[in-house]
Amino acid sequence: MPANFWANQTSNVGELGEQLVAQWLHQQNWLILHQRWRCRWGEIDLIIQQDPAKLKAKDQLQPLLAFVEVKTRSRGNWDADGLWAITPKKQAKLWRTAELFLGEYPEKQNLPCRFDVALVSCLRLSQTCHRQKNDLLLPLTVESGARQISPVEFGQPVSVAGYRLLLQDYIPAAFD
To answer: What is the pTM of this model?
Structure first.
C-alpha cells in the first residue's frame, strides 16, 4: 500500500468507503490488485488476492481471489446499510464483470474466487465539530517524510475529508 494512500482524498463518499476497506484489507494481508475495475458490464469496487507469501493454511496451495462490493451508507438509509442493494440482478452483473476480469487476466483464472461485501457507515462532520473535536480527526503518522494513515480497525470510526467512516461489516463469500 503506497505511503500516500489517503493523499488524494476526495469528497466522494463511495470512494472514501472503498479506500477505507482497501486499507483494512491490506492490513489483513490482502494484495489490492485493482480499485474500481471497469468493463462493459460494470465495475467491481475492489479486486483483491491473498498475499501468497503470507498464506496461513498450509493445505492452501493457491491464494484466494476476491471481488469486493463496498456499500457506503449514511444513517437512516433504506436498504439495510447497503445489503439490500445487492439484488440478484446486481449479483449477476458482478458475476459477468468478474468473468470479463478473468478473461483479461488469464493467469488468475485457476485461482479459487469468491464475492465479498463490505458495509461502511458514513457521517458527515459539521465544520464546527470537525475543527473543535480533534479526537475525531484521523490520526496520521509521518514515515519517510510521507503522511500515512494509522491502522484501520474493524468497528472503529476514522475521520477523513470531513466524514466519519466506520467499517461495520465485512461478509466473506456473501454470494456464490
So the answer is: 0.79
